[in-house]
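=== RUN LOG ===
request id: a7f3
mode: sequence -> structure
chains: 1
length: 679
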Amino acid sequence: MADLIKIRRHDGIVVAVVDDPDRPVNVVGEELLESFAECLRTFEADRRAVGMVIASGKPGSFGTGADIDWLPQLARRPDVEAFLARNHAAMTAMARSGKPIVAALNGPALGGAFELALGATAIVAHPGVRVGLPETGLGLIPGGGGTQLLRRFVSTAEAERMLVGGRVLRAEQALEIGLLAALSTSEDDLIDRATDLARSLAGAAPRPVEGDRTPLPADRAAGHLGEARRGARAALVAGIDGGLEAGLQEERRVFIELLSGPEFRAARHLRSAERAIRSAAKQGSASPPVAALGVVGAGQMGAGIAAVASARGLGVVLRDVDESRLRAAAERRDRLTGGPNGSPGTFTVTTAWDGFDSADAVIEAVFELESLKHEILAGIEQAVTPRALVATNTSALSVTGLAQAAREPHRFLGMHFFSPVERMPLVELVAHPGTSADTLARARALAGVLGKTPIVVTDSPGFYTSRVYARWLVEGVRLVLEGMPVEAVDAAAVEAGFPVGPLRAIDQAGLRLVLQASIGQVARKLFADRLDVEAIEVFLRRMVEDGAGGRAERKGFYAYDADGRRGAPGAFGAPGVPPEPPDGAAERMLFAFLTEAWLCWDDQIIEHPDEGDVGAVLGIGFPRLLGGPFHWADSRGAGVVLDAMRGLDPRAFPPGGQLPELERRGGTFSELPRHRTGL
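=== RESULT ===
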């Protein structure tokens, strides 16, 4: 206990400071839980102690859940049930304590660390702190009593939203729903606020252990939730119906079952693959790291890139000819960083080329028009020094074609960011044949500095993500043309595991952009020999001509109000086609995505299947709990997958060349050697 939890006293209040000396953050694992249980026993036996505060010794961080790499070891232990039961006993003993216990959150408290706080009488936090139980996003449920203890603070309906959805809340949101008792006025007074609260609660009636037991309505969406989300709800309902011990027993059962389940394996795979990609990016190049970044274009993408770069400490100069867009970009940066002085990096806007001669790298992010990009890239090369990296942000234009405007093409490449840049973690690096190895290494390192996960892709129509995404969107429209109602198409995609359906996605992007990029730059070039792209294009153009341009125009596949809220679907479909939905729509939505990803491997668009998985999940919404299109195939086996595809049209859903080869020799995508793309 002395190593992990340090004890201080403040006039009868015990302050237990959790501080694992061997880790940068507190990770709730076996040793910490045992130390905490001993700390509780000592506290209960101490007659001088009238209350306790649980705090963290890590600046800006309360703690996280168990190490994901340790959990498979836990799953193999014969005493896993007994281990979880001991932890549950410690948490319920804490919740039943006759003396008040207050958790003081000085930074993020997620997973197991937040479960520790949920055993307390009350919780206080520093403003802006994030709290939650995001385990379902990892294919698990809380295993430290969280499915039951959450109901001590919030309603069963709110507990369901947090547990099933894995919601992470800011402290201000948590205060509104009663999860927190108070916010500190500053980080400095957090412990004082917590000790005062503990002292004021001494002698008061303890918080009930059972919490809210209001029955939940029947879950109509249970079939679409996935194993972890269904399990979280099952544990919650077990506690509501049968009481605390019944709920904890169900939590243990589900948690142990999920530890060996496919969703957790998929989450571990993605974590490992993403970590390897980020590690490679940190290796960088022989050139100095980028400290000053120029961005050209203050639209959605350019302003987002500039804001993120500033928030990460880079000096930024942002150029645009429209001063109103520059002002909006500066406001966006201020919102992200907390004000004009919220970042260590400088932030300058200009309508000229002032400051670009000091930039280590420049990212062009103007409209997706080749002639305009040629003009801007020529201006960049005149403004920057010979050592500057030059990149274009494009989702589908040929980087090789754009390189023709460069006097020094060796330092030029594509960097495809995703919107909104502040939230989307992926960037595609697109090298053309003249890109130098050092330029690609510098771009990897820059992506890492910006907090992004970079994958390297070949310069081909749509690269990887835009190509696969276009195929998925096209399948949604194909289903409409075959007579399937709009809402049913999107529901089929959700049934397959996608967070949103293709028709809602088209509305969100705007039909004109989809026609220009997904259809014109990708589908027309790559899919015309397999699909009737012309019919899809004619149909979408007719929608636009009828005023259905998408969400921004308040009418697309759905109607929208002035605030952009989605209403009823429109009456769109192919003339003369009866509204009889085709069979296997969810399967088609899934295999449209899968087969195009596998074809990208055959075409050497990506370097390794692991990067294809990461790109699909982080960039274009492939279901995280399926682990990516290549892991999905590996987890089922090539033979099983090919058998499942036999009822699909092989022209529309070609399995590619690699999958049959894997079936023949019993291999997996993950075992394949790397392609060398781009260079």
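=== NOTES ===
The chain is about 45% helix and 10% strand.
The first strand starts at residue 5 and ends at 10.
=== END ===
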